[in-house]
Amino acid sequence: MSPDSISALRLSLQVAVAATALNALVGIPIAYLLARRRFWGKSAVDLLVTLPLILPPTVVGYYLIVLLGRRGVLGAPLYELTGWTVAFTWYAAVIAATVMALPLLVRTVRAAIESVDRDLERAAYTLGRSELRTALEVTLPLARNGILAGLVLAFARALGEFGATLMLAGNIPGRTATVPLSIYTAVQTGESGEALGLVAVLTLLSCLVLVAANQLGPRTV
Amino acid sequence: MSRLEIGVRKSWPGFTLDVEWQAGDGVAVLFGPSGSGKTLTLQCLAGLVRPDAGRIVVDGQVLFDAAAAIDVPPQRRRVGYVFQGYALFPHLTVRQNVGFGLRDRARAERRRRVADVLGRLSLETHADRYPRELSGGQRQRVALGRALATDPALLLLDEPLSALDLPLRQALRDELRTILAGWGMLAVLVTHDLTEAYRLGDRIVVYEEGRVIQAAPRSELLWQPSSGNVARIMGLRNLLQGVVLKATPERIQFRWRGQTLEAVNSPTHSYLPAPESPLGFFIRPEYVRLIRKDRDRVDSAHHMNLMSGTIVHEVDFGATWTLHFRLDEPGSPAQGEYDLEVEVPRLVYEILEIDRDRHWRFSLHRGSIHVLPSA
Description:
The complex is a heterodimer of chains A (about 220) and B (about 375).
Chain A: H1 3-36, H2 42-54, H3 57-68, H4 75-82, H5 90-114, H6 118-126, H7 131-142, H8 144-160, H9 163-169, H10 179-188, H11 192-216
Chain B: E1 4-12, E2 15-23, E3 27-31, H1 38-46, E4 53-58, E5 61-65, E6 70-71, E7 79-82, H2 94-99, H3 107-120, H4 136-149, E8 154-158, H5 166-183, E9 187-191, H6 194-200, E10 203-208, E11 211-217, H7 218-223, H8 228-233, E12 239-247, E13 251-256, E14 259-264, E15 278-283, E16 289-290, E17 307-316, E18 320-327, E19 340-345, H9 346-351, E20 359-363, E21 369-372
Parallel strand pairs in B: 3-9, 3-10, 7-8, 8-9
Antiparallel strand pairs in B: 1-2, 1-4, 4-5, 5-6, 10-11, 12-13, 12-15, 13-14, 15-21, 16-20, 17-18, 17-20, 18-19
Helix pairs in contact in B: 3-4
């Protein structure tokens, strides 16, 4: 494998791990709120989080540029303040992967939380636990397998993300060219050996992820 | 003195809970059909459901008062809750379940308290098991122990026996009674089983469709249901309708199926219906007295409310026989095929040879006819 392929592989893993971590941080609280709370704008949040599942990745990427690009809604003030922009950095790849993976995580985790008996939470409340402590000590531990399954799916989705990443992060070898982008480049430039190697690695990784997800199965506790 | 006062109202689409009752020491039972608002009342008491209006006071502490904008959160109400199905934490051991409410106590005290509760409920040998490894009875005790460990001011139990099979249920009913008496705390228990209500309750609150239709000490409820509705919900038999002849504070005379009957006027709800007004009453099947043909001389001093009839149907319940009598009086019977249900012990059935002799005279003491105030 060429040095470019190895750096693409390293970058892809780095991006997928970071995106999965962000998913856990952002997605699990969103899933909890959607499963357990009633609040104003709940269906809008639900829609917004689910949308990347339905929209073409390039459309999601386009929105991300509008939002975060150098002249974007958030990107412009950030650029003026710091002279730095997220576009075309590896952070952009992480953000694109995070947004694209979020629906899978949120939907899986939400279903797992909804399957936890509410009387268990009520019992914890009468025994003095706050809602936050109840979520941490009762609800989330009991939804553990669903959460792990959601994280595995999010990781797999982040690893394979192409369209939105291309839009926001570009395809800069060594900086933002993840494995799927490198495969595209390799095929375009006729380096079929390079492409085959990366395809094999990505296929193998995906298989491993699937096996891991199946191992988790339904909660047995 | 009432230690618990609740008067709350809450509306949902299609259902309104609007109840008010008090309870003193001991166990108050909320009794009524499913969907009558009993569990919702417990959830209001625990602070898990917020009423639209009303007030809840336990031992002088106001837990909820809509007018004064007081709503103590469930975490600080000092209420122990035994859920229907127990709601034990499946990922925690028995010891961790029982100790769950003691997190802010010092470690040594927590350990001592958990050991004490496990000991009192005979759960020491199961302390390190998980709920799924326990029998139904053990789960019930863990749920009870978890609620009692925090030393609550009020204990709530939602159908604590309904998850168990019948034989176990009867044994545990008496065990629960002993435990509640031993702890001597204020408790509210929900059930739709009348026997359970009587065995466990000092005071019984009867629910129907989100309202309280009677709240009374156990003995009073048994003999003086406040209305035909209460009697029906309690599953009382021989619930009948007569016409008043004459009413005094002591006695009520009335006509029913061509008979003139006399009943003791209800000692607590003594009331005087006008002659010719309708009168609801019930007769407990086990209090009808069959008259022995060989021995008893019929005399009106001994045998009040004398009637005669034929057995049209009978059911063998093992320890007792249930007989359906049709009066000799012509006309259509009061309860479909028959007028009166009578229950006799098996021994009496055999001694009197009821299987061969189908026509009997019987009498009813005036104290065994229970008059229902009109609703």
